[in-house]
Amino acid sequence: MELKQIDKTLYKQRLNRFQAALVAGLFVVGIGSSSLYISLFGAGDESNFIYNLAGVITAVIVAAIGFNIVKEKPYMIEIRYVWKLKQELNRIYRASKKLEAALTADDDSELLSRALIVRYFSLHGSKHLYQLEDNTLTLDDLNTQIEAFDQRLETLGEAISTDDYRPELVDLL
C-alpha cells in the first residue's frame, strides 16, 4: 500500500454524504420493513419486538448489498482509500508486540530492517490519516515520534521511504 495525496475537502464531503445516505437508508428501510412485517404478521395485542428486529436486520442487509454495489464506483475512491489505510494501520497495530520485539532485535539485521520499514510506514501513514481527518490533538505527539524515529534511522544509516512498505512485511515479523 502506498500513501496517496487525496483532496481532503472532497474526501470529507463525500464521506459526509455517504454517511448521511447510509443513516437515511437504514432509517427508511428499517422503519418501512418493520411496518410491513407488523402489518403482515403482527397481531394487535402482541409485542412487535421480533418484527422490529427483523426490520433492522433487513435494513442492515440492504445497506450491505448497497455498499457492495457502490464501493467500486469512482465516487468512493477517497473513502475506500482511507478505509484501506485504516485497515492496514490497524493490522500493523495488532502486530505491535512483534514489531516492538523486532525493533530491538540487533542480532537479526533482516528482521530489524523489515521492522524499521513497517514502523516508518505506520508513523507516516498515521500522520497522513490524522491530517486527512483533522486529528490535531495527537499530531504533535506523532510528529515527536517521527522525529525520534528519523534520528534512529540516521544513526543506523538507513534510508527508508513509505514506498518500501509492503503488507507482507507485517507477516514476516
Describe this structure as you would to a colleague.
This protein has 173 residues and is mainly α. It has seven helices and no strands. It is elongated. The two termini are 17 Å apart. The mean pLDDT is 90.
What is this structure's SSE topology?
Layout: H1 8-41, H2 49-70, H3 77-94, H4 96-103, H5 109-132, H6 139-156, H7 168-171
Helix pairs in contact: 1-2, 3-5, 4-5, 5-6
Key descriptive features of the protein:
7 helices, mainly alpha, 74% helix, 173 residues, elongated
Q: Report the structural category.
A: mainly alpha
Number of beta strands: 0
Number of helices: 7
Beta-strand proportion: under 5%
For the sheet with most strands, the description reads:
none
Order of helices and strands: HHHHHHH
Between the first and last Cα atoms, what is the distance in angstroms? 17 Å
The low-confidence parts are none
Task: Determine Rg (CA atoms, Å).
Answer: 23 Å
Shape: elongated
On the 0 to 100 scale, the average pLDDT is 90
Percent of residues in helices comes to over 70%
